[in-house]
Amino acid sequence: MGKPAYPEAALLNTARLARRLSLPDAAARAGVSHQTWGRVERSDGNRAGADTIAHMAHAVGIASERLASIATSESDNHLRRAAEVLREIEMQGSSGSEFQRWLQSQLREFSDEERVIVEELLSEYQELQQSNARLMEKIVVLFRQRKRGDHGDGPGAAAVE
Questions:
Q1: Mind listing the pLDDT tens digit for each residue in 91-119?
Q2: How far apart are CA 21 and CA 149, in angstroms?
Q3: Cβ atoms within 10 Å, residue 120
Q4: Do 75 and 62 share a domain, yes or no?
Q5: Cα–Cα distance list, 70 to 10, 16, 45, 79, 83 (Å)
């Protein structure tokens, strides 16, 4: 009798096929070799690292909650760790407001001292988001000026600085 399949194998295969991705295409999206992807889908050899599983799941659109839900036992901390890594990947690509909502939901787990620090960091993050929005608006203005034929060397150039 062969070694049992890891639970992530079938999920990754199903998600890849649902997205109509070839194995090499999915592997490229995840930043792994197609050989690695194939071994993971076949549960061949050592189990892939949590980070690798997380990046593979992200490449085929598996949500962190879904990945965590396939942990087959209380002791399957490997998949739980992969789901945590995937959640971080999701947060990096998410909108600022989603990140802020998530962070606010996590604050109850912090001590009062830690909460103050996190709230200060969140305030700094919000300031950076506002600064980024202003920079993006300046870029849009520049593109609009260029489209109109004003290449920024006239009197309107100072308006975007």
A1: 776 556 666 677 777 777 888 898 889 88
A2: 43
A3: 10
A4: yes
A5: 10, 17, 20, 8, 10
